[in-house]
Amino acid sequence: MGVARIFIADDDEDYLAAFRIGMESIGHKVFSVNSGAQVMDALRDGHYDIVFLDVVMPGGGAISLVHKIRLEYPDVLIVIMTGHSELYNTPVFTEGFRLATARIKKSASLDEIKAMLSSLLMPK
Amino acid sequence: MSRRSEPHSVWGATATVDTQGITALLVGPVIILAGLNLVFGWLLGSEVFLRGLRDLPAMVPGTALCVAMLGISTLLSQSRKLSIRALSVGLAIGADLFAVLAFVASTGADAPVGGDRMSLATLVAVLCLSAAAVASLVPSLQARRVHEAFATFVIVIALAALIGMVIDLDSLFRFTLFQGLSLPTAISVLLLALAAILRRAQGTWLGVITSDALDGRLARRYLPWAILVPFSLIELSYVMTDRGVMDGRQRQLVFAVFVMIGSCAAVVRLARYQADVARRDFRSEANLRAILSGLDEAIFVLSETGAIMGRNQAAERLFGDRPQEVAHLLSIDLHDVPRRERPGSGRHPVTRALAEEGDVHCGWMDADGHERILGLSSFKPDAAWKVLVIADVTEPWMLQQTAALTERADALAQVVSGVSHEMLNVFGVINMSAGARTDPDDKTAAIILKAAERGSRLAERLQRLTVTQNGAVATVDAGEAALAAVELARRTLPDGIVLTHDPVLDPLPVAASGADLELALLNLILNARNAIAEGELGFGQIDVNVDSEGEQVRIHVIDDGPGVTEEVLERAADPFFTTRRGVGGTGLGLAIISTMARNAGGELRLSSAPGKGFQACLALPRPQLPSTRDQAALPRLGTMRLLVVDPDPEFRAILGDTLEMLGADVHRAGSMDEGCEIAKRLPDLSVLIVEEDLPEAEAQVLRRRFPNAGVIYLAGPAQSARKAGWPGLRMGKPVDMALLCNSIHLVAARASGASCDEPL
Question: Any idea which architecture A5-121 has in CATH?
Fold first, then answer.
């Protein structure tokens, strides 16, 4: 696994900072925005290997973004980060999550994310 | 009169006629007659006003003045003012004295022989009438109907005189009593006597005749015959004797036979009539009894003196047939709810209910030792009696209490859920930061990571417990759930109670939510703990085992506690049945577990016997293969314009995103003001989804601002039940999307229908 270009959208600045430190510590490059409204523009400006989306953000969360992203970038890897997964355990979300490549908990440890990235980014 | 004590008013001899008007009608002519007699008769010499008919005696001025005074006295006695009533008594007594003087003057030695004079009958009548006037003003005499006796005597004299005048004047005047009695006088005293009775007619014979009730109708129907038949018989026999058809003895015989036949016929007729009435009464009473016996409320009919005159079957079921009067009801131990205090003196719930203080609620321990909640009220259908209604409101009361508890628990769950979500985010930051250590042997980072990991697990468990999984087909491993419940329960067990559990190694998935199953098992274990701890020994063992049988997975919770009787076992899973009401049991635990099991397609089996412990077996089906039916069932919301008003930004965002996914045009607002600003630009808003605890989220306000939009209220944390009566649909959080979509379609259809057509 080489250096991956990781895009993350999350309105929690603390988590963004921690995520950046964590990802950079294992050698990846992180680009971030803190609202759903900025996501589509930011994605057009650069190429990314994997996109992390928070479920709830001002300007649209993962549920609506995942559909828009899939339309424009059918092949990009999308990971949805959930804090409240059970609370919104409805068929709509299941459907929404199905378009995403993977789903992790907000509380996941760096090792868990590392393991997930390794399996997702493994050259086919 | 025995009739008066009968509770049924059809028999009551109540004069319902306007006695004041009739008194005036009776007394008015008397005063006018006296005036005409004095002015036109004595002053101007008109014979008609003096004696009525030629050859009859004249009404002397003394008599005219006396009857006028009595007439005025009668009119004045109707006044409410004491002074005027006193004046009326004075006039009546004055008439007495004046009559005595006038009688002496007109009949004494100085009186002209053969001239007009006051008759003895007039004097007696005036004395009796003034006595009647006084008697009718004294309550104790009035109650004994003394006035009726005096006035009736006057009526007898006046009628005898009038009949005598019609039949044979000479014979009449051969009686000393009637010598010199004039026609106007006879008529005047008759009218005055009638007025004297009518003034206080209650219970008198005239009261019966004039009554609107059954007695009056009956009397009026037969009275003419009772007068006419004997009178015509006498006349007929007199004529026949006169013509020589029969002699005196024969006349006596024939008269006796006819009178006997007439009286017997009248008696038989009356008896038949009374039997008809009694039969009708009995039938309506039987109907009433049937209606009352079908009521769940206990009904006591109380007399003025506090005796229990009647009760229905529910009343006998409640308190037996021992209570015979209010004092017995007052000796029943009723306590205040919810504090269970004995009421202070004079504050007994029955006293309060009878004082018509509205609905009074109280608690009562029944014969089996269960606490029942009673609602008492009373009403007064009649002046003579009162009805006490006692309703057993235990179940609604418990439901209300439980609903209040559930609402508080729901509100708490929402707060806990929000907090645990935040905690998960915080642990995510810690995990990530500590995980990014550069030195793999950094012990501090390792400790932080381990603690954060534990924290995340706790927060996740907390979140799972507070979540209701709407719409999702959940599965859980029965073995894991049992292990989790055992671990949680173990911490609550006192010394002396051993909890054993053999963990299962193979996965045993069941179709149930993990949180529900864990809670259910926890509840069963705690029930077993309570049974053992409250038993005679106070120590014992609880076994929790999991096995499978065919398509079912079974979880057994078995204790060696005191067990229960067959009767208790049968009702154990009924809602609100508890043997632990006094120590905090709600009687809902087993009922909820049983419902949960049935909803999941399984069942809760219970078995027990006294001294043989209690065995609970929760049997749940293995999960079916996942189906896509649930996704397909979600209705699309295409072209609908929705406004979501909710102060919680996260909820607002996620609900909005979800609704957009289903095709709706969604607008979001954090407050009603913001919502109104947005709505100004959206004239064709279909549905408003609003958090009901928002200020201004009142039906009338919303209706005015969004007349064409349907409204869905989302229950806020305060869960205010007061708004339950609002027009619009209500639903709780977390939101079940299928339910919300169906609700949106429902209110949108109604709203568009209302804007096109006239409302029904």
Answer: 3-Layer(aba) Sandwich (3.40)
